[in-house]
Amino acid sequence: MVTLIRVKGKLELNCGQTSSEISNAFRHLIEKVSCPYGSFLLEGERVVFLHRFLEKRPGKGWTSTVEHQEEEDCFMVGVEKQDLTVEQLWQYTAVEVEDDGWGTSGTRTAKVQPRDRMELSCLWNYSNPACTSRTIGCAPIVHREVKEGTTCTIPVPIDALGMISSTAPATSLMEILKGAVGRQVGDVAAAVLSELKMKGTISTPEVFHFLPPSLGHHITLVYTKAATQGTFETFRRSIHSSLLLPLDRPLLRRSNAISWDKRDKLRNVHTGLEGKHGVGMGEVALVEGVYTYHHYMQDMFDDDGWGCAYRSLQTIVSWFRQQGYTETEVPTHKEIQKCLVDIGDKETKFIGSKQWIGSTEVGFVLETACGVQSRFVSVSQGADLSSKARELMVHFTTQGTPVMIGGGVYAHTILGVAWDEGTGDCRWLILDPHYTGAEDIKTIHAKGWCGWKGPNFWNQTAFYNMCLPQRPKEII
Fold it and tell me: What pLDDT score does 107 carry?
């Protein structure tokens, strides 16, 4: 077993605004992180990892050697013993709670289960002697030079990842932490200097983590804030080629980045339901990638009874956004209505109304706002939807996008299909936008708001039209 380590921090550079001065400043910052000034605080704020050089006393006798290699040591403050393993550190990640006078005396901590990552913060330990053991005992030297020039302050965000065996000594974490932070400072320097060379400007560096589906490990990249999608296209393409990633879809754009921040909406709510379709020997094809579940009453907006197609459209836009195909924000109901008015599909009075939209309007908005083309498949009655199972299989296999379906007075999102060609048995994995409850995945699964539905789910006599969004081609 391995443990994913994440170390965060905020550093800063102040230097002259020239390539040479910025390079030197970043080089010194890397040395500073790697020396005893660089320390790390474990989440829970109970354990500090201190980095120090071991000073050797002079040898005695004629056989003593004058030269010796520097030895480094990691010392953990806040633990009872130094021979802990990495997995034993989890017990120190819980925040201690002081007794309030009504319970037992002393402090108490909750039992902590290992999580998907262990987080630390990067700190400066200014009480340590110096940057390297070779400078211990040396008098400080001040160099003052008066000249005209432009200076700059560059924020250096730290959000670095590392991997270590869960059974490794906890003190060995120091090398992982120093290496991860040092490499990231170098990556930030490369991004800043690249923008300075190409545009003559300096903007804030931003760190992004990626976990492409076909790759077994994370990738961390640094983009500057002023950079556009096109700025780093050649760079992204080279990484795709180096890691044998597909060259026909974006995987390393900003919007592809994973986020560990708490979200107010659920993602990929069908996870765990993939094999529960009940079609014996049938084939199964599902949505690929990440989407956000949009449903009635979200965002403090009451659309109960009329906004189901709007919510399905929002789910689809979230898919294209999180797959990196568009930077368009998920539109509100009013923005969707305004888009349809702007292209001449609706009259001005449509904005702010509670009028429904259908799959055709969903396709119009996707094309206008996201540059996404769509195919449309229809049946004259719900009883005939099983006849379109093969087309849906092909769609999810080749495109992998969520499908909006509208019929009668309802709209839903199709996330997959299970089909037995021999028997004709068919099930659809439905994401229902009519849900009005809290973001509770257990309730959503238990009550069938996301689940496999059979032919009787559809209105047998109603006309149905499906919007099948198509992936843009050759985009990285």
Answer: 58
